[in-house]
Amino acid sequence: xxxxxxxxxxxxxxxxxxxxxxxxxxxxxxxxxxxxxxxxxxxxxxxxxxxxxxxxxxxxxxxxxxxxxxxxxxxxxxxxxxxxxxxxxxxxxxxxxxxxxxxxxxxxxxxxxxxxxxxxxxxxxxxxxxxxxxxxxxxxxxxxxxxxxxxxxxxxxxxxxxxxxxxxxxxxxxxxxxxxxxxxxxxxxxxxxxxxxxxxxxxxxxxxxxxxxxxxxxxxxxxxxxxx
Length: 228
Description:
- By secondary structure, this protein is mostly beta strands.
- The chain contains three helices and twelve strands, in the order E-E-E-E-E-H-E-H-E-H-E-E-E-E-E.
- The chain starts with a strand and ends in a 5-residue tail after the last strand.
């Protein structure tokens, strides 16, 4: 079969120009190609869905480019914590036909790259002078804290529902950040260590000289809904 859709909304996410072709034989279905427009960018990919056995098996590969992260996250999660232009490659496999089973059997790899954006709700650079202001807890914190970046790179490996990264990096004029840890999507728990390294000037990515002073690692734990 062939499907073309002008505009589509999935869990409040708006996509346009959907085009896909589906081929099936002996319980194995191939989705090739799959293309759509998404928040000023586009997605292309292909997939495989098998119902040969009692438990369905799915494999999907997706490539995203030019997608605006902020409106996508607002529509999908009803939250406003990240800005930037997103590029990504994802290769995932899973079993089952309900959300719980799919989460438990999620495996694969992915690589997300955000350019010229910001993380809202935390100002890592402010840690140089005031730890409280970094998290908006100072009495006169002023405007909403944010960490601007030129690049945020998030490679990950998913194994049985646990997403792991040890090479996530953030590059900003005053700070370099590395992140390692796990997100358990079954239990919806977080366990990450964020290590900032401050640089001395506003020269940008080429400047690696460390700023003198206390470097404050940040531990992110607890649940998806109420991280600490």
